[in-house]
Amino acid sequence: MVGSALYNTFNRAPLTFERGEGAWLVTESGEKFLDFAAGIAVNSLGHAHPHLVEALTRQAQKLWHVSNLYEIPGQTRLAERLADATFADKVFFANSGAEALECAIKTARKWHFANGRPERFRIITFEGAFHGRTLATIAAGGQAKYLEGFGPKAEGFDQVPFGDMDALKAAIGPETAAILLEPIQGEGGLRPFPNDMMKAIRALCDEHGLLLVLDEVQCGIGRTGKLFAHELAGIEPDIMAIAKGIGGGFPLGACLATEDAASGMVHGSHGTTFGGNPLAMAVGNAVLDIILEEGFLADIERKSNMMRQGLASIVDEFPDVIEDFRGTGLMLGVKCRMPNAKVNMALRDEKLLAVPAGDNVLRLLPPLTVTDEEIRSALDRIGRAARTLSNEAKAPGGQAS
Question: Would the pTM count as exceeding 0.85?
Fold first, then answer.
């Protein structure tokens, strides 16, 4: 055997973490990193949150897996809590965001089929989107780099330019079933759909008998200061895929839908072996215990304002490194002047972890439990990294790239 036995699909950083606590990760050698990546918005309550650890440990001592051949009380409870807190009436549990999106796509298509419109199966999506890595979800995302080499693109997805309402209207045809979008594109560079556009898209769906499907895998579960990002626009979808933060680090996804939208998904039309297992349900319920505590979501906006003020000062001081910042709640990013990979390395040298995204953006996705002191520390580290890069670029022979 030559090299690692793992597939060569990840360009991993040369870091190995042994343990974590809150917003901190510790390497095998004892180095501490401030984690503003949070597993790409997954560790919503930080590392080793006591309530999550206790819930998982308690469940692990009783029952891990029985499959969906039997009743799983934790599923019923988590589904009811999600329904009570959202637009949804029905929930299907899966293991990941991609699986949740697959369920959402199938739900939208099946709704039209069940209502006598089998020809309506096409779904309109937006350029720059990321919906997962399955054959259907890479087709939905439409990005060439993810589609290359995997044979014909799965049929039934039509991309339009981001935010182009005229193109969106023109793309609607007799085969259109739904519109699918991320209220805030994560991988696409923290690009939000403006609230008035979200309302216009909702109205367009109503006008043409389409379902509105939202991908809140990254922007949901309190990340924006609301339980879900679409609440900022005052609209409701028909179907929504969630994952990441709802499991707090445990693999968990879900597809939420109204009673009507889910009406085509009858016995035998969809399934999962591991989805909704007792371990995942214990953790998902524990996450909601914290997220739904009075004042928790409101405090995210306060923390966001603190971060935004600090980032504004860094942009003012080092415009040659960071030209702007963007985002909502604790889903923030810096638009880099020089390559974001270079800025990311400088942050890592300061023991701060961030996440690259499209449009030359670096995402800052701290745990929602991040403290004020940790925010100040992160801002100090970003400032020091920007100063180092700025000085290097200004030095004789220095360059921004």
Answer: yes
Q: Can you tell me the distance from the alpha carbon of 115 to that of 57, in angstroms, rounded to the nearest whole number?
A: 45
CA distance 256 to 283: 18
> Residue 210 has what DSSP assignment?
P
Architecture of the 17-41+296-323+338-373+381-394 domain: Alpha-Beta Complex (3.90)
Same fold, 17-41+296-323+338-373+381-394 and 50-291: no
Q: Where are the beta strands (DSSP E) in 152-248?
A: 157-160, 176-181, 184-185, 191-192, 211-215, 239-242
d(CA 323, CA 395): 20
Angstrom distance (rounded) from CA 61 to CA 48 = 18
Beta bridge partners of 94: 253
Do strands 253-257 and 191-192 pair parallel, antiparallel, or not at all (unpaired)? unpaired
Which own/partner pairs from 312-321 qualify as long-range (CB within 8 Å, at least 24 positions apart)? Answer: 313/383, 314/379, 314/382, 314/383, 314/386, 317/383, 317/386, 317/387, 318/383, 318/386, 318/387, 318/389, 318/390, 320/390, 320/393, 320/394, 320/400, 321/386, 321/389, 321/390, 321/393
List pLDDT tens digits, range 367-399. Answer: 999 999 999 999 999 999 999 999 998 888 665
Domain boundaries, the chain: 17-41+296-323+338-373+381-394, 50-291
Fold for the domain defined by 50-291: Aspartate Aminotransferase; domain 2 (3.40.640)
The predicted-structure confidence for 96-135, as pLDDT tens digits, reads as follows: 999 999 999 999 999 999 999 999 999 999 999 999 999 9
Question: What pLDDT, on a 0 to 100 scale, did the predictor assign at position 395?
Answer: 83
Cα–Cα distance measured from residue 96 to residue 74, given in angstroms and rounded to the nearest whole number: 18
CB count within 10 Å of CB 145 equals 7
Torsion angle of the four alpha carbons 255, 259, 260, 262, in this order, in degrees rounded to the nearest 10: 30
